[in-house]
Amino acid sequence: MQQSALSSVDAIEAERFRQFIMGVTDYAIYMLSPEGVVVTWNAGAQRFKGYDPEEIIGRHFSMFYTEEDRAAGRPARALELARTTGKFEDEGWRVRKDGSRFWASVVLDPIVDPDGELLGFAKITRDITERRVAAEELERAREALFQSQKLEAIGKLTGGIAHDFNNLLSVIMNGLELLRMTKDPAMVAKSVDTMARAAQRGALLTQQLLAFARQQPLRQEAHDVTRVIRSFEAVLRRALPDDMHLYFQIQADLPQAMIDPTQFESALLNLVVNARDAMGDDGEVLIDLDAVTLSEHEVERLPAGRYIRVMVKDNGEGMTPETMARAVEPFFTTKDVGKGTGLGLSQVYGMMQQCEGALTLDSRVGKGTTVSLYFPAVQKQAGDDQQEVALGFEKVLLVDDQPDVLDTAISLFSHLGYEVLSADNGAQALEMLHQHPDISILFSDVVMPGISGVELGKAARREFPALKIVLASGYVKATLRDQMPDIGNFEMIAKPYRLSDLIRTLKAL
């Protein structure tokens, strides 16, 4: 009697639970057979899927999937994963009775008896289309804000860039006019030096912009930092007015460091200019170069080891803690409008991250600022003291579709002692390689009509495996990599290149 009463209570509770499930309108809650056939249907499923119970019970649940999902086998995979893992959760497009789609959140649970035999599946579906639409609108708003910020940044940069380049072009154009008018050797030498400095400043500005755009590849190689700084000393001194003084304190016999010389020079120039702007009418800048051995976590992000440390110290106005906390943010600047973009220190910080080094700041108001750069040091290898490789005495093929650029390259290589052949397109270059199998070096522009420099390099390497290949481009590797994946297989030099850059690249061959 008591057992019968308990059974009756259980039946009543089960019926109440069934009625509760059937009455839920915000969720589609229904049962499937082990094969995926619908066996129950609640009010929620009827509300946002559009089917009455008699229309859907007995049909396979795959009818709710899109045609592309059915073709991909997603319904069967959902059942299999639920059966084997104990639960299946997913989001995706589902189809209503009227053919419209909604974005669904789905949970599928297997139902088993006490012996573990599969009885079917409990399926819960929620219409989250509104949430998805809201997320997409938020993402579009974020993208629009990002584009707006980029346009604002470009607007901030445009005026300064145009001004700087117009100044540089004025120097070069006026210098050329002077060369045409005068035969005075002193005036000629002075004009040439002035134009060379203007061209170098233009190249540095372009490199800074490319680095900011994250399109300037970092070419880390072992270099003598002392030699790099000394060769760049004249430019650094010209960055300071006459009433300011630049001093160097360089430790002797330093190991080499892993740096990109061009990026390093640009970073050093940025730091000297920042120091200049912090000191008013006069002051002193000290560049201190030494080797340090760091313990673990002595400098944030750096593992223990040997580093080359470059410190740029000024005795300017210094920074408050609040300014220091934001100093490396892009576009953050304390300079007056028109006197700074806020890119300098952020560019240096980005370079240090790429080269697995670190940048630290030490500053106090009224006491000046010290910026320290830590570069991984290189252990000296056997043979490092051997005599440098001599250049020249080889035959080189130069390829460029721009006549002026090609003429300049011919002059540079001839000056270095090479026997020079030239071509203005890839097809002509391949023909000349066959005519002159003793060519040792192929030096080609990357972007050319017809056969590109990369295609030329690949064809030449297949036919002449011993040929040394250098590709030059005003674009950079990061910009070209998507269109020309094989560009990383060749030695590269960035335009505009100086004679010293060319010598360094040729020695690397």
UniProtKB/TrEMBL annotation:
**GO MF term list:** phosphorelay sensor kinase activity
Residues covered by the PAC domain: 88-140
Primary enzyme class = transferase
Entry-linked InterPro entries? CheY-like_superfamily (IPR011006), HATPase_C_sf (IPR036890), HATPase_dom (IPR003594), His_kinase_dom (IPR005467), HisK_dim/P_dom (IPR003661), HisK_dim/P_sf (IPR036097), PAS (IPR000014), PAS-assoc_C (IPR000700)
Matches recorded under PROSITE patterns: HIS_KIN, PAC, PAS, RESPONSE_REGULATORY
* Cited SUPFAM superfamilies: ATPase domain of HSP90 chaperone/DNA topoisomerase II/histidine kinase, CheY-like, Homodimeric domain of signal transducing histidine kinase, PYP-like sensor domain (PAS domain)
Please report the stretch or stretches of sequence annotated as the Response regulatory domain.
Answer: 395-509
Modified residue annotations for 4-aspartylphosphate:
D445
Q: Which Pfam families match?
A: HATPase_c, HisKA, PAS_9, Response_reg
Per UniProt, which keywords does this protein have?
A: Phosphoprotein
* EC number(s) recorded for this UniProt protein: 2.7.13.3
Which stretches are transmembrane?
A: none
Provide the catalytic activity annotation: ATP + protein L-histidine = ADP + protein N-phospho-L-histidine
Residue stretches making up the PAS domain: 13-86
* Residue ranges of domain Histidine kinase in the record: 160-379
Top-level taxon in the UniProt lineage: Bacteria
What NCBIfam families has UniProt attached to this entry?
Answer: sensory_box
Protein name in UniProt: histidine kinase
Q: What is the lineage of its organism?
A: Bacteria, Pseudomonadati, Pseudomonadota, Betaproteobacteria, Burkholderiales
